Amino acid sequence: MFNIERWQEIFDTIRKNKLRTFLTGLSVASGIFILVVLLGVGQGMQNGISKEFEDDASNSIWVWTRPTSVEYKGLNPGRMFTLTNDDYDFIQRKHKDQIEFQSSRVRIWSAVVSHKKESGSYSIEGIFPDFQLIENEDMVSGRYINQNDIEERGKVAIIGYKIKKDLFKTIEDPTGLFIQLNNIPFKVVGVYSDKGGEREEDRVFIPSTTAQQVFNRGQTISNLSYTLQPEDNFEATVAKSEEFVASMTAYLKSKHVIAPEDERAIGVNNSLENAKRFYALIFMIKAFFWWVGVCTIIAGVVGVSNIMLIIVKERTKEIGIRKALGAYPISIIGMILHEAIFVTAIAGFTGLIGGLLLLELVGPFVETEFIANPSVNFNVALTTVIILILAGAIAGFFPAWRAARIRPIVALRDE
Question: Membrane spanning segments where (predicted)?
Fold first, then answer.
């Protein structure tokens, strides 16, 4: 029930002790403010890391070769070797039930790509149709490489949106037109865009079989890329990807005469393993942020409790008079609790609103390599404030209980 006299008492106490009440509320508000900002930064870090993984499929596996680092079977370290179509075909047959999407890649670096008077130096990559799904590429116009292109070794090309802007400045859709790849004509059948931006859109994709034939690559390939069928949960998916990588690298080492202990010769980038490490790190950082924020809030709540103890001490005689006039202990407890909860709630919501406003105003402009749009879930923040108010009630209970146990005769003698 609303009691106007109780509220008048609370405001009179606050008015008499403005500085003390302000400093107490400031400690509570700063605790919530710091927690909200830290949670926002933690979410921003997660957003930034997630954005990095958006460039490719979240469960992609990339494999390439590097110089050997261990002497093996009379072969010196530093030896180079290349992957072949046989490697790609064998892995496909052995793991066909696990593989979701797959593609080999034949790379021709710094090729001259031209259309009429416009030209530039770009990368040419021979790929398979699944590469679009592995790389998370969207078609701006036209189509992607298909199986018919692979089988017929068609001289067709997919160009990045950046190349389209560079070579076809006034042409809205270059589909159906021809470009020269190192003076070899190819028909443009599509334009793609990539979430990675222009750094991923300066490539020309052609059928893998065409790249090997036209650019004299024989049966060699530059690297392999895969995504695997998802499992029931993240941990099981990671475990399966690790098994796949172990089996694949064991086969490649055996096939190309590489020491089993040579960790350098075969490069592997497993995005699931990377994601697991990053998310574990983010979890630890968020846990640390929570710990710092909660400790700050606890300090504020302890401050509230101390202030309530001081208030009880100052109002001892008043409390004795109330009890002498017949006030019940529960009304004394309610009086002290009411003030503690009011101060905690106002300070808590002030800190919450301040933190949310800061994230709302500054967050969209924060774009670094590992932090993007720091924000916090409003429900989480609101729940934190409600818990803070309950903590404030607990903090005020002990001084209130002490006040309720004061004997009137003792209180009336207090100076």
Answer: 21-41, 288-312, 332-358, 378-398
